[in-house]
Amino acid sequence: MTTAxxxxxTEPLVLQRTQGAVRVLTLNRPxxxxxxxxxMHAELRTALDAAAADASVRALILTxxxxxxxxxxxxxxxxGSSPGQVPDVGAVIEANYRPLAARLRxxxxxxxxxVNGVAAGAGANAALCCDMVIAARSASFIxxxxxxxxxxxxxxxxxxxRLVGRARALGLAMTGDKLPAEEAQRIGLIWAxxxxxxxxxxxxxxxxxxxxxxxxxxAQTRRAIDAATTMAFDDAITLEADxxxxxxRAHDFAEGVAxxxxxxxxxxKDR
Length: 271
Ligand code: T3D
Description:
Layout: E1 14-19, E2 22-27, H1 38-53, E3 59-64, E4 68-70, H2 89-105, E5 111-115, E6 118-120, H3 122-129, E7 132-136, E8 140-142, H4 156-175, E9 178-180, H5 181-186, E10 192-194, H6 199-211, H7 215-228, H8 233-248, H9 251-261
Parallel strand pairs: 2-3, 3-5, 4-6, 5-7, 6-8, 7-10
Antiparallel strand pairs: 1-2, 8-9
């Protein structure tokens, strides 16, 4: 590790654009494979909060500029590696990665990771925190933590075994081997793998489709499925009933049923 701080730049570290009801956030430190600095975390938090607060946004895409998606923590940034100084990596997790993972998993709209290139360390797990991951065929996923003496973070220890089972979770995490996107799709780590040139079209088509669906029900679907993984069956049924009770009183349920019966397209608006 070096003590040199990453160079300052006036370029936004997170680019934002909106296409219809879809907000696209692009991590923008391409020369460092979009690795996370504290400053990029801060911009991403602000951008995610703004998307969550904007009722016109009904789906979100997270992607990376250049040839990488995100190489995890920028190992030059704030590592406190001056002689005699012991870095507090736990503080970095609490300050930056816990809020990121929590925010991604509590967005009121569906979140798609469009993984355009290598996703390593917390970059891989930030992608896996998203609801659906679409990767370019040339992309890859690396649980790089073991190579620098750490454990998977940004939710990795929770997500990996749930997505691919304990054997594969431990294999990926212990070896830190590169997992190509096609293999990631095959083992169920991600939703889809597409040709590189098709990545953003595919992500946008999925996001546009999800943006016309009942956002609140989609967000509650994420919440209920995640909660159920640690529940007894009866408790999961209770959560389903409680959630249906709440959603059943909302606009979108009435609209969905009315539209079905009238044989017209529904117009959902809850969030
Ligand atoms: O505080 C804490 O640490 C807590 C949080 C931890 C969360 C974590 O994410 S820990 C894991 C951190 N990430 C890594 O260990 C991955 C390090 N990067 C790599 O192993 C490789 O770069 C990749 C396998 C991702 C890609 O390899 P390759 O050959 O395609 O590209 P490269 O040449 O290694 O990287 C291109 C440039 O990006 C290069 O800069 P240069 O030489 O052209 O000026 C490289 O140094 C830079 N870069 C890549 N990853 C990072 C990075 N710079 C800083 N931090 C990085 N993580």
